[in-house]
Design a protein that fits this description.
mainly alpha; about 170 residues; globular
Length: about 170
Amino acid sequence: PLSEEGRDAPVKKTPAPLQLRMRESTMSTSTSRSLIPVPLLDYVAVAGTQLKMLADLAKIYDVPFHQERGKSIVMSLLGSLGMGTLAMGSFVSLLKVLPGVGLASLASVPIICAAVTYAVGKIFIQHFASGGTFLTFKPEAVREHFKAAFREGVEEARKMNAGNAPASPVAASK
């Protein structure tokens, strides 16, 4: 598992292409669901997508899935991004109701949602691959690691939204 300082401990298993493709596919689904025209419903749909990803990853790693624990972990991780990021995302989502102005949300909401999905997937792939479970996951220990993964996710989402192939090991192996 990740150490108390949030640095990577030695990982027993390297994430397989299946897990990486799953994360990329879930990023695409999150991007699509972020375009739901009803403010904040987009975030509910994306959260459901992320929980499904966690359930699928748990199944791959033979880890019991705990939906309520998964929800609280994801919310805790989101809190590590800071109120500015979360408030901006919510504000932009609310802009969807304003004619013309709502188009601005089409640029940033999908990137934020895909980046959060990327970061959640990356953190959990590493945690499960190193033998961790939902019960041993400590969000406070990975806050900085999650922020870094979110920044990586923003770049991946921009590439994905620009029509470029993701710069992941999976994409390179195709």
